[in-house]
Design goal:
3 helices; alpha+beta; 4-stranded antiparallel sheet; single chain; 5-stranded antiparallel sheet; 33% helix; minor pseudopilin epsh fold
């Protein structure tokens, strides 16, 4: 009996299996690793979506201000420096003029989505179904919103810098502006779209 008692005590001191705290710690660790994995997969999508929404917001604000203030608002895109600028063009001459209340505000594309650039992957068709040849298709890379609520037709393409380097269009985004109504739309790359290009309308 004493031998049995000794064996039981030894088993009690060296139990087989895992304790509840150990199991909980393991579950927490697995959850943490999974969270980081999901974040790394989706972060590029979040960045591209955030940048696209911010640019659309500035375009829509410029359109509204042009009608409200009854003067042009010019949004110009600088693909080399990954910036875009909004000009309150009081005298409608397309350039910043001192002393008459005109302002020009510069926005960084990466402000709401790190590593975003104006660009595209070669060989990908645009929202019109034709091959993309320029990240910004507006003449002189400018779009002017008028007091009549009109603007030039054009498209802006953006992508993560990594996607561009790796020729991976997965997280490409596009913004289109229509002449007659200055309607602004958001698009995302979707290879399963029925066309005309591999794009799905988001707004």
């Amino acid at each position: 009996m004493r031998q049995v008692g000794r064996i039981c005590r030894e088993l009690g001191e060296n139990p087989r299996g895992y304790s509840l705290p150990e199991v909980l710690a393991a579950v927490a660790l697995v959850g943490l690793v999974t969270t980081f994995g999901v974040y790394s997969v989706n972060s590029a999508s979040w960045r591209s979506a955030a940048s696209c929404r911010e640019v659309v917001s500035q375009l829509e604000l410029s359109r509204s201000r042009a009608v409200l203030r009854q003067n042009n608002f010019v949004v110009s895109f600088d693909s080399a420096n990954q910036q875009y600028a909004v000009l309150d063009d009081v005298n409608n001459d397309g350039v910043l003029t001192a002393g008459i209340g005109e302002t020009r505000t510069i926005h960084e594309l990466s402000a709401t989505g790190a590593d975003m650039v104006f660009g595209f992957v070669n060989g990908i068709n645009g929202i019109d179904g034709n091959p993309i040849s320029d990240a910004v298709s507006f003449a002189s890379d400018n779009v002017t919103f008028t007091p009549l609520g009109t603007a030039e037709t054009g498209v802006i393409y953006m992508i993560t810098s990594q996607g561009q380097e790796n020729d991976d269009p997965t997280h490409m985004r596009a913004i289109s502006v229509n002449t007659a109504t200055a309607r602004i739309r958001r698009w995302r790359y979707d290879q399963n779209s029925n066309g005309p290009g591999p794009w799905k309308l988001e707004q």
